[in-house]
Write a structure and sequence with these properties.
Blueprint (H helix, E strand, L loop, with lengths): L3 E9 L6 H19 L4 E8 L3 H9 L4 H19 L6 E4 L3 H16 L3 E11 L4 E2 L19 E10 L5 H10 L4 E2 L1 H12 L5 E2 L1 E2 L7 E2 L2 E6 L1 H6 L1 H4 L7 H7 L4 E5 L3 H15 L7 E4 L2 E3 L2 E2 L10 H8 L1 H11 L6 E2 L2 H31 L11 H20 L3 H22 L1 H4 L5 H25 L4 H10 L2 H5 L7 H4 L24
Parallel strand pairs: 1-2, 1-12, 2-3, 7-13, 12-13, 14-16
Antiparallel strand pairs: 4-5, 4-6, 6-8, 9-11, 10-11, 14-15
The structure holds 5'-O-[(L-methionyl)-sulphamoyl]adenosine.
5'-O-[(L-methionyl)-sulphamoyl]adenosine binds next to β1, α1, α7 and β12.
């Protein structure tokens, strides 16, 4: 069986990353960590999109070559941020690497040889911000790009064209036979309508500038940056160079994309693959936008907030948690310091962090830090854990419903809190009789074992926090590394053994500085 292969968009290196870019990458990281914990063979790819006018102009404005600019941004901004956010990608592709450029040329040459590409001329609007040919009908106020709200440019160029218009019926048939190919449903409907309204052939080359991969049979043209960029998903996993790897990893199971780049992924990309007879990806999931003041957050609008501004205040794990918990995946959402602070305090610090520290403190105080064996079964908690695992696994692992999955996990955390406040172990502790001790042992074992399950479930989302909890429960010593724990086992009750050394580790979510 092919690997579970997840991709993020490859990001333009014209500027440094902001929250919107990190949103998709964190989602991909959580999804792939989840599947690794299911025990699957996983491949997670991210990277950078380095050709095209947008980058060329930025480099010019900064007095360096586009390659120098790209090298600098990748080294100083993009890679360090992913490391900072604990992104565990298996590869990082840059479209200026020979492993990519050579294969792109071969791909395009092949389509040319097959008669899929012809020479024509293009006249029409183009948005350099989107690097996209626009149709006059979609412009605002006559000449504004609907996404960038800035004037488009008029192109009149001889270009090479890909016969995209011929793929409409095959694409519609494919969508019909694969109803989950485009998600969420609103995105699917939009694409189906778009394709039904008739596809134009696609200009796949540009001749008015040279920062791109040359068209192999005509050096005066460079390959259109989107054709170059989409191919990264294939070239990065050995397309045309390492057949064994390509067979193991391709096709992608999930392409994560922002909704503004959905058509490229759900229309052009499958048509390109069809033209070559390659297997099509399993799913294209379009996430919504992070908004500021009702507009898409962006650096060019000066609304781009750097993730580091938030991680400095809330920490990396809370950052990874917040956006996935607060915004249903697929919808737009706004960010506010107030909402982030409120969720941090109530969900992470109070509900979860306090529970972990109270349980560890009580095992320390009443049982000298050695986990007691339970004297009775506690099906209301063990059953709830099993249900939370099943629900979270379906939501996060299958449906990419991160908010829903986290809600299941945190509902369970609240249930354990409720159990403790009902059982009142601090009162039971005053009863020295064998019955009292047995009851206290049951309560504390139940809470600690519940937390073991929570640590496994939260590991893909908040790896550093989950690890601290895992160690504090004495689980590492008896059950091995957290990363090796299977999601399915998270719900198997009774894995923490009697006598495990429970220690009060550091506070998981310290009080926020105001
Ligand atoms: N280079 C292309 C993608 C090529 S993929 C073969 C590109 N790059 S981008 O850097 O402009 O955008 C990358 C991704 O960031 C897109 O999916 C876009 O939707 C996402 N976001 C940019 N701003 C965003 C928000 N404010 N909110 C959420 N995602 C946003 O497009």
């Amino acid at each position: 069986m092919a690997a579970y292969y997840v991709t993020t968009p490859i990001y333009y290196v014209n500027d440094a990353p902001h929250l919107g870019h990190a949103y998709t990458t964190v989602a991909g990281d959580v999804l792939t960590r989840w599947h690794r914990q299911r025990g699957e063979d996983v491949w997670f790819l991210t990277g950078t999109d380095e050709h095209g006018q947008k980058i060329m102009r930025t480099a010019d404005a900064n007095g360096v070559t586009p390659q120098e600019w790209a090298d600098k941004l990748v080294a100083e901004a993009w890679r360090p941020l992913w490391e900072h956010l604990e992104i565990a990608n298996d590869d990082f592709i840059r479209t200026t690497e020979p492993r990519h450029t050579q294969r792109v040329q071969e791909f395009v040459q092949d389509l040319y040889d097959k008669g899929e590409i012809y020479k024509g001329s293009y006249t029409g609007p183009y948005c350099v911000g989107c690097e996209e040919f626009k149709s006059p009908g979609e412009l605002l106020e006559g000449d504004l790009c609907p996404i960038h709200k800035r004037p488009v440019e008029w192109l009149e160029e001889d270009n090479y064209f890909f016969k995209l218009s011929e793929y409409g019926p095959r694409l519609l048939e494919f969508y019909e036979n694969n109803p989950t190919f485009i998600q969420p449903a609103s995105a699917r409907n939009e694409v189906v309508q778009f394709v039904k309204s008739g596809l134009q052939d696609l200009s796949i080359s540009r001749s008015s500038f040279d920062w791109g991969i040359p068209i192999p049979w005509d050096g005066k043209h460079v390959i259109y940056v989107w054709v170059d960029a989409l191919l990264n998903y294939a070239t990065a996993v050995g397309y045309g160079s390492d057949q064994e790897k390509f067979d193991r990893v391709w096709p992608a199971d999930v392409h994560l994309v922002g909704k503004d780049i959905l058509r490229f992924h759900a229309v052009i990309w499958p048509a390109m693959l069809m033209a070559q007879g390659l297997p099509l990806p399993g799913r294209v999931f379009a996430n919504g936008w992070l908004m500021v003041g009702g507009e898409k957050m962006s650096k060019s609008n000066l609304t781009g907030i750097s993730p580091r501004q938030l991680t400095e205040h809330f920490g990396v794990d809370a950052y990874r948690y917040y956006f996935l918990r607060a915004i249903p995946f697929g919808q737009d959402g706004s960010f506010s310091w107030e909402d982030f602070s409120a969720r941090y305090t109530s969900e992470l610090a109070n509900d979860f962090g306090n529970l972990a520290s109270r349980v560890a403190a009580m095992v320390g105080k009443y049982f000298d830090g050695k986990l007691p064996a339970p004297a009775a079964e506690t099906p209301e908690i063990s059953g709830a854990l099993a249900t939370a695992v099943t629900n979270a696994d379906r939501a996060i692992g299958d449906d990419l419903d991160f908010a829903g999955g986290l809600a299941h996990i945190f509902d369970f955390v609240r249930k354990v809190n409720l159990y403790l406040s009902e059982q009142e172990p601090w009162k039971v502790a005053k009863d020295d009789s064998p019955e009292g001790r047995a009851k206290l042992a049951t309560i504390l074992y139940t809470a600690a074992e519940a937390l073991r399950g929570v640590a496994v479930l939260l590991n893909p989302v908040m790896p550093a926090t989950a690890e601290k909890l895992w160690v504090s429960l004495g689980a590492e010593e008896h059950l091995g590394p957290l990363a090796k724990q299977r999601i399915a086992e998270a719900g198997t009750w009774g894995r923490l053994p009697e006598g495990a050394t429970v220690t009060k580790g550091e506070i998981l979510f310290p009080r926020l500085e105001s």
